[in-house]
Amino acid sequence: MADVAVHTPPADGHDDHAHGHTTSTGLSNNKLAMWMFLGSECLLFGGLISTYMLYRGRHEGSPTPSQLYNIPLTSISSFVLLMSSLTMVLAVSAAQRRDDRNTMTWLTVTALLGATFVGAQVFEFTEFVHEGLGFTTNLFGSSFFTLTGFHGVHVTVGIIMLMALVGMVSRSRIPGDKAEVVEMIGLYWHFVDIVWIIIFTLVYLIPS
Amino acid sequence: MAISERNSVPALAGSGSAYVTPSTSFGVFKRPVESTGWRSWVFTVDHKKLGIMYGVVAMTFFVIGGVEALLIRLQLAAPNNKVLSAGAYNQMFTMHATTMVFLFVMPMAAAFANYLVPLQIGARDVAFPRLNAFGFWCFLFGGIFLNTSWFLGGAADSGWFAYAPNTALAFSPSHGVDFWALGLQITGIASLTGAINLIVTVLNMRAPGMSLMKMPIFTWMVLVVQFLLLFAIPVITVALFLLSFQRNFGAAFFSVEKGADPLLWQHLFWIFGHPEVYILVLPSFGIVSEVLPVFSKKPLFGYKFVVFSGAAIGFLGWGVWAHHMFASGLGPVSVAVFSVATMAIALPTGVKIVNWTMTLWGGKLRFTTAMLFAVGLIIEFTIGGLSGVTHAVAPSDTQQTDTYYIVAHFHYVLFGGAVFGLFAGFYYWWPKMFAKMLNERLGKWNFWLMVLGMNLTFGPMHILGLQGQPRRMQVWTEFRAGQGFFNLAFWNRVASVGSFVLAIGVLMFLINVIYTYRTAPVAPADPWDARSLEWMTSSPPAEHNFDAIPTVHELDEFFHRKYEENEATGEIHQVSTYEEIMADEATRADKHIHLPSPSYWPIILAVGLPIVAYGLIFARLLAVFGGVVILLAMFGWSMEPSVADESDYDPPVDGGPTKELATLG
Fold first, then answer.
1. CATH superfamily of B47-258
2. Any CB–CB contact under 8 A between A12 and chain B?
């Protein structure tokens, strides 16, 4: 990404532009932009969640939500996703200490935890299809798969970004401030986590 | 990282080599470095070039949308007319609205915002120059994608708000609606990235001393609009995804026969759609709020009120969407709430009208074309605003829903409001952007033909609508046209004649552009005796905008540098000229201004999107290919520093500034 700055390059020539310049808000351009994007994403998930809440009772021709949901399994996968936020924090912290090795380790662990979550979701989707709830079976199916699918895609995009980040850190191919890039991916990752907390509560825990 | 000013001269200076090879460090390709020719436009990240490109493309779509409108009016010019078949007519009004809203007014506002916001806040570019270029290409490719549907089985024919079940496969079997849904997703990406970019630019990159309440009013209105876009675009994104899933993957989100609730679409669409109308009109409000003070030689009356009423419109705009749905049976409580909210939003709008009028009051008015359009906006928009208040009264709205009365209303607010504002902006900022004054005589023709044309076209629609002529009616018959003053045949003919007057008015503008491009002398740098920072640059502004970033002390900084008030008498007298101020700024000029560098990645990334969209419609394999293009472009982009490497620049001569990229590679 980019920001516009008036700055003096540090002595080592490393283009460390996130520090040493002022913006009107004090927040770097990159970070402010990420916050704005996440604000926009809230409305995206807001729309999808509303659609699901409207249609969750319309499950003609398929098992009901309470028959389908495997709460213990989803609880475990939710826990795994929440733990990935912890490892993400550790990655950011390592990046801020300029500790590349630990940064890469924790990013990889975060990606693996995320992949575990997506794997559980794929398993869950397959189970649902076997039990008679497909994407087109009824409105409940369509809106359930759309909502959780969109979230799953967000996690998957996050995993791709994490792995790309590992690769780029290992080859020192990140232009600009490494710690800030890691932190930005972290913001995205935490956001996706928080959205899952809302989805898990509204979709799985509150009976329809 | 985009613009950096380096205080130390790089070690390159002593290398003695005159030719520099642009490095491939980090990037995959060598960077584009051309500063002339088509490459300097296609790979540019300069906000001014992108602004002009937005403007040219939007103007082209304006002409296309205008031709569509003329075809509609031709069809309605005579009874039992056969200019357009029913199917073609449906496509025509759908694409007319879609083009005008998404491909003309929004991008034209983006053109002004892109060009002017960095200049008005004293910045050298936007926060994310490559993202800015990406947004433009998304808009262009999205617009082209939408319009190719005409040749690939027919355009969307469901009306611009695409209510279910009109969009269902059974009622719209062509690919038109698919093109529409995917095309708007692509232009939506342009709006979203543009919104994030401009918000960060305005919040983070203002010149020293420019607090939010010293910001030019146009920039303020742009900021409000970007927040509206930021939160409105994801909602239409959801709606369009659901629609695509229904049409392509067999879901039933809006199929009543499968138990769905068609109101879901209406809610999602209008939660986007009502903020959208403010997205369309607020930039024009900003433009006239700049134009009126300059040509009245007075500060904007109640600047803070105009700012806060703009922000209030931005907030209230989220609470009125259901007034588009009064006729859909929402129940009395909802109707009452949205009815009151809608009346409430007339207040901040009225505040603006009062402020503009008071700005004119007692001013030394100069009726240039820009001023005429601004005053025209006040009058025509007020007419549209008043008919809008009649929609807020739900019982009256039930009578008006889906009639030509609605068509009359929104053309008064969107043509008389948004479009007049944009034209005021053309005439006002043309000398800034192109160093040529648009011809005033042709300008007057342009204005008066447009005023006459729009009132002839849209005025009679009030009568037609209240007489019950339904919106989107393809054909009328003499037999059912009625008698006397309310004869529908007569008023339809008037509207059709008016639309051609209007078209000639717009044509005058295009003639004016070509005529002045060929003949007009170079315009003075401050032809209007303007007030805000963008005029404190050369015309057109240098690539780096400002030699020295100005320090701001006042609202209307440029005016306050030129004039001082005698405290005893209250008289204003000139203390400085443009030339003196510029010479003073030049003494503080920054050295070593490194601008953001051109890049291939924005256009490559953007071109992947329509490939995916065509693929989704015609061949999934193509979509996979497009996806690969997008993914690779993302990697290329993220590994490329935004500013070229030091070695990409020509070595500085005699320790002087290094402002140019090496042109030899």
1. Cytochrome c oxidase-like, subunit I domain (1.20.210.10)
2. no
